[in-house]
Amino acid sequence: MISFGRRGAPLVALDVFILRTITIATTLCLVMAPFAPSALSQGPSRSESLPYGSALGHTKANWDRRIAASPKNAQLHMDYGTFLLSAGLIENAIAQFQEATFLNPSDVEPIIALAEIYLQNLDFEKSQTYAANALRLQQGSSAARIVLLSALVQRDQIADAERELTILLAQPRNPRVLQLAYMVKARRGDFTEARRYLQQAVTLQPAKIDWVLQLCKMLESSGNDALALEQLRTILKRYPNSLEARLKLARNLEVYRNDYNGAILEYGRALEIDSKSAVALAGIERCKGKKNNLALRIKQGIQFYIVRPATKN
């Protein structure tokens, strides 16, 4: 998500009312449409076929009139771009941010917005270029440096990423920076430090399901499957309909705890979320097979009472 301060004129009351009425309708656009990998490569812009009788179309028409009345107002273009981005109209938002940059080249806000858009759309080279430009204009911009760090990590330019990371870690703890520190350290093969940073990021932002799942994977790989199980149960209390977390819990029970009944139960709950989940269907069949495999059960019993205690000493 990209959030910006509003220095320009506020929306008229009618626009505010209309925006509130479409909040629910645009939620999925906020989460998925702006950052779909094909969003920038699709054909005609969505706005070209936008029905102006709709609430969104009406609001956009009001913005168009305001822009026409003050075409040289850079902040107005910035605000309009923010609105378009929230509605999932990516190409239109990019055009407004670019116009804002053209009208006021010294303002880093639209440049950072462009860097963030290209980062989320997986165009890491262009994201890096815009973020670096923003930093040249404003060396102290943490927002620009975070986007630059993200792009560097994704482009596997780890030496440069470590330089930017050092600067960011000297500032107050930011969950996103800590998660990026985890990525940098993991790329360097320093998994102990990587886990420490990721644990800090999850502590500061426990609602980030993907971060929790990354942490659980690291915990399981290092033999801390019980702690991973605890993390999974905690996140599922908050988000019981998370398919990814539910499947991860089922796999933990199946692979690390040999609790096939519990795993079958969790795979079944995953099917309640997505009845066509191939992972859940395969997991149930696999667990049923393991339950009926007597030789496997004997082997697992020996491992539990002999091998596992030995590894804890």
Order of helices and strands: HHHHHHHHHHHHHHHHH
Cα-based radius of gyration, to the nearest Å: 24 Å
Instruction: Find the CATH superfamily of the domain at 8-40 and 51-136 and 147-152.
Output: Tetratricopeptide repeat domain
The CATH architecture of the domain at 8-40 and 51-136 and 147-152 can be named as Alpha Horseshoe
Q: Which structural class do you get from the secondary structure elements?
A: mainly alpha
Basic shape: flat
The CATH topology of the domain at 8-40 and 51-136 and 147-152: Serine Threonine Protein Phosphatase 5, Tetratricopeptide repeat
Strand segment tally: 0
The percentage helix is over 70%
CA(first)-CA(last) distance: 46 Å
* Low-pLDDT ranges: 1-53, 309-313
* H/I helix tally: 17
Major sheet summary line? none
Which range does the strand content fall in? under 5%
Instruction: State mean pLDDT (0 to 100 scale).
Output: 81
CATH class of the domain at 8-40 and 51-136 and 147-152: Mainly Alpha
Can you give a write-up of this model?
The protein has 313 residues and is mainly α. The chain has a domain at 8-40 and 51-136 and 147-152: Serine Threonine Protein Phosphatase 5, Tetratricopeptide repeat. The chain has 17 helices and no strands. It has helices spanning 13-21, 27-31, 55-69, 74-86, 90-103, 109-120, 124-137, 142-154, 158-169, 175-187, 191-204, 209-221, 225-238, 243-255, 260-273, 278-291, 294-312. α3 (55-69) packs antiparallel against α4 (74-86). Residues 1-53 and 309-313 have low confidence and may be disordered.
